[in-house]
Amino acid sequence: MATWALFPLIALLSSTLAAPAAANSEGDALYALRRAVVDPGNVLQSWDPTLVDPCTWFHVTCDHDNRVTRLDLGNAKLSGKLVPELGKLEHLQYLELYMNDFVGHIPEELGGLKSLVSLDLFHNNLTGPIPSSLSKLSNLKFLRLNNNKLTGRIPRELTKLGNLKILNASNNNLCGTIPVAGSFSKFTEQSFVNNPRLEGPELIGFVRYDSGRDCN
């Protein structure tokens, strides 16, 4: 067989081999989440790490290239911590984890999910600050962080999220002042209510990074 005739075959084999490698990486990331949570309803029972890719797992949606694009685990009675490995799901568009009992911090690694359109962490028991790394999610349209136990200031970097349409950070323990610059200019105080130590909105031209209230 002529050497030039081998090129299409080599290219085909290369693409075939590359896809499972990516799929296995995403499967490993999702299985790290399964190991980290308590699942009393066995909603993650189908998450079998021995499979070639996670696209056959329940609550996981993939595109035509077998890349994970959606994770639907809302109201699944899960508890435990979110794992940094979730940041490896490079093609993820929807991360729906609302109405569970997740605890601990929001992983900074979620800022690596460049394709993310929706991040829904509503009604968990998450603590710590809102990661400034979320400002890297340039495609993000929906961000729900309400009804948790988040603390600290609202990162000013988040005002760079030009595509953000829905924001809810109410019912937490955030502090400092509410940003009004950039994309935040269209959100009312309803997006931030029931944060006893949060003041605002900021006076335009007089950004008060240090209010009289404690913000540790």
Automatic annotation (TrEMBL):
<keyword id="KW-0732">Signal</keyword>
<keyword id="KW-0433">Leucine-rich repeat</keyword>
<protein>
    <recommendedName>
        <fullName>Leucine-rich repeat-containing N-terminal plant-type domain-containing protein</fullName>
    </recommendedName>
</protein>
<feature type="domain" description="Disease resistance R13L4/SHOC-2-like LRR">
    <location>
        <begin position="71"/>
        <end position="169"/>
    </location>
</feature>
<dbReference type="InterPro" id="IPR032675">
    <property type="entry name" value="LRR_dom_sf"/>
</dbReference>
<dbReference type="InterPro" id="IPR055414">
    <property type="entry name" value="LRR_R13L4/SHOC2-like"/>
</dbReference>
<dbReference type="Pfam" id="PF23598">
    <property type="entry name" value="LRR_14"/>
</dbReference>
<feature type="domain" description="Leucine-rich repeat-containing N-terminal plant-type">
    <location>
        <begin position="24"/>
        <end position="63"/>
    </location>
</feature>
<dbReference type="Pfam" id="PF08263">
    <property type="entry name" value="LRRNT_2"/>
</dbReference>
<dbReference type="InterPro" id="IPR013210">
    <property type="entry name" value="LRR_N_plant-typ"/>
</dbReference>
<feature type="signal peptide">
    <location>
        <begin position="1"/>
        <end position="23"/>
    </location>
</feature>
<keyword id="KW-0677">Repeat</keyword>
